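[SOLVED] Predicted holo structure with NAP

Edit: marking solved, answer below. Original request kept for reference. I posted the sequence and ligand SMILES and asked for the 3D complex as structure tokens.
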Amino acid sequence: MSDRVLILGGTQEATELARALAGKPGVETISSLAGRTRRPAEIPGTLRRGGFGGAGGLEAYLRREGIRVVVDATHPYAEAISAHAAAACEGAAVPRIALHRAPWTQATGERWIVAADADAAARALPGLGRRVLLTIGSRGLEPFLRVPELRYVVRSIEAPEPAPEADRVTLLLARGPFDIEGERRLLESHAIDVLVSKNAGGRAAYPKIAAARTLGIPVVMIARPPPPPGERVDSVAAALSWVEERLASD
Ligand SMILES: NC(=O)c1ccc[n+]([C@@H]2O[C@H](COP(=O)([O-])OP(=O)(O)OC[C@H]3O[C@@H](n4cnc5c(N)ncnc54)[C@H](OP(=O)(O)O)[C@@H]3O)[C@@H](O)[C@H]2O)c1
């Protein structure tokens, strides 16, 4: 029987890891998605979608499916699934590693206002601008919409549900990678004076930060939540080596 590797996904790194493991003899990858994105990227190997039913449900799944190792390659802001993975893997004695890409660091000339969470980010906005580009995904917009008098351009892959008030929010559905010229045009054409972002890391989403710098626009950067306990790597290559070593070790 093949060694089963569970990749908790929803990120580019998770897809790249599944691609890197595809075709390795004796290895079966199971990529797990929360199931929120309607048209996810093509992922080789077995694909499953939807929650496990908390840490207990995930632990039962690991045992039932005979999972050998788990790579938590979820987004660094997906706190619940990472905590569940940590608890479930400990319970089922399955080795686990977290693969989270390195965060961006503030470059010279960038003006960052680091906020502890979305509430703090929303509270910081009135002192910074009135027309906000919000690039935090389609969920968690409530703290921002509660701040009166601000106008938002919300860019996300999926449409927010419920749809926000049309008079204050312009919705742009788009999926990266983006480029700096396009991002600059976006900021200028909507007369954006402040940008809100998560610290996603990686190249695909960074051009908005660089474009904001060229226009002197401040960036409210929502800090990452604490990472899950245990081993962590920030590259697909390192996660791949870890998986291979673990599978070879017994
Ligand atoms: N948060 C972000 O900014 C962000 C950005 C880009 C992509 N994503 C991706 O979108 C997905 C959901 O993110 P989130 O922030 O809503 O997560 P979350 O708050 O940590 O998770 C909420 C619940 O969704 C289910 N879930 C999440 N990720 C899953 C996965 N990979 N496979 C199976 N079930 C999963 C779990 O349900 P049960 O408790 O029932 O198991 C989990 O308790 C994740 O896969 C993440 O990698 C998130």
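OP edit: Residues 8-11, 32-34, 36, 51-54, 57-58, 74-75, 77-81, 84, 137, 198 surround NAP (CB under 6 Å). Thanks to everyone who chimed in.
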